Amino acid sequence: MAVKIHPSWGDILKSEFDKPYFLELVAKVKSSYQQYPNKIFPKGAEVFAAFDACPWDDVRVVILGQDPYPTRGHAHGLCFSVVESVRPIPKSLQNIFKEIQNDCGITFPENGNLFRWASQGVFLLNSVLTVEEGKADSHKGIGWEIFTDAVIKVINKEKEGVVFMLWGAKAISKAETIDKEKHLVLTSVHPSPLSSHRGFFGCKHFSKANEFLRMIEKPEIKW
After folding, report:
1. What whole-number distance in Å separates Cα of residue 75 and Cα of residue 67?
2. Rounded distance, CA 198 to CA 100, Å?
3. Is the pLDDT of residue 1 over 60?
4. Is the pLDDT of residue 87 over 60?
5. 3-state SS assignment for residue 15
6. DSSP state string for 157-208
7. Three-state secondary-structure class, residue 54
8. Of 63, 72, 173, 174, which sees the most CB atoms within 10 A?
9. Percent of the chain with pLDDT over 90
10. Is pLDDT of 4 > 90?
């Protein structure tokens, strides 16, 4: 299972990769790919795609998702993102685009591939990086959360002026580890159809992020 990860993250996370829990996690994930061929998402090479698409030095915004889409052909390693061919765009992502349209006046994009955000410094991290087909949360609790918590902690510690977008109770729970004197933390309900009308619509996170980046003289994101 050859994975792609930008060398800058390899340097930052080397000590984490060497810890016993991570070695156990890798063994479990490899076993899942072997036991359920073509039924673990994303593809093995894309598990760390968020880290490959957004190098350490570029990180300006962190959006935290839950786990990959469990629908075949959707997940490709960036939270909330889907490959260009996916139609219709998942409803949570549709709601994100609706909020961007209302907040920033940007029309719906042609597809749901968010690599265009990652290439601008938006780190699209899921709390859990793999999932079994048709079984949301199926890889919850096997060790991914320990790893992604460590990733958030190192961003919090080593960087200044990062925007964290935390949507839904699971993501918001991570806010306790983030220094709000150094970073901007934006929280809201999850953009899923079940909760979006209870506070995601109208949260204006995308314009708030750009206002903050402008204030600290960092480039804004072209949402």
Report:
1. 9
2. 17
3. no
4. yes
5. helix
6. HH-SS-EEEEESHHHHGGGGGS-TTTSEEEEE--SSTTTGGGTTTT--HHHH
7. coil
8. 63
9. 97
10. no
Tokens for 159, please give them.
Answer: 């960087």
Q: Which residues are catalytic?
A: 67
What token pair was written down for 58?
């570029």
Q: What is the mean predicted confidence (pLDDT) over 51-77? A: 97
Residue 88, amino acid: P
Q: What is the DSSP letter of 136?
A: T
**How many CB atoms lie under 10 A from the CB of residue 84?**
11
Q: What is the pTM of this model?
A: 0.97
Element (H, E) at 41: strand 40-41
Run of H or E including 65? strand 61-65
Q: Is the pLDDT of residue 18 over 70?
A: yes
| Helix locations, the chain, DSSP H | 7-12, 14-17, 20-35, 49-53, 91-104, 115-118, 144-158, 169-172, 205-215
